[in-house]
Model the fold of this input.
Amino acid sequence: MIHKWQSNDTAPLLRLWLESTTEAHPFIDAQYWKESEPLVRDTYLPSAETWVWMDASELRGFISVMHSQFIGALFVATAHLGKGIGKALITHVKQRYPDLSLEVYQKNSRAVNFYHAQGFRIEDSAWQDETQHPTWIMRWREDQTPLA
Done:
């Protein structure tokens, strides 16, 4: 079900990204995400390695890793949240990279809790001028001692 995205056609990824990110961030005006689509399409996705979860040839989720360390995107179709897709995608990239980091909005408690449950720890915070909201910088390392 998980395989590397091999296509230059990013339209399915962008549709899922826009739907999921708008849903996950109700505290940010949806117009911001629409205006960010060219950046995601032309910069982030081409510079990342992306793996997708497909089910009956339908995209259910994807994860993109930039520079072999930064998770720039992890999105699961809203109708499929809570079914293990996000966890499977995270596990997939953890098997390929020994040190991963990401940035998540502090108000997105569902995502913060999800990443924490996957072994990511908060290392820092940042302020996003574009959205006027704070984020957490979270990190996972293969050699870190898991919590009991």
Summary: The first helix runs from residue 11 to 24.
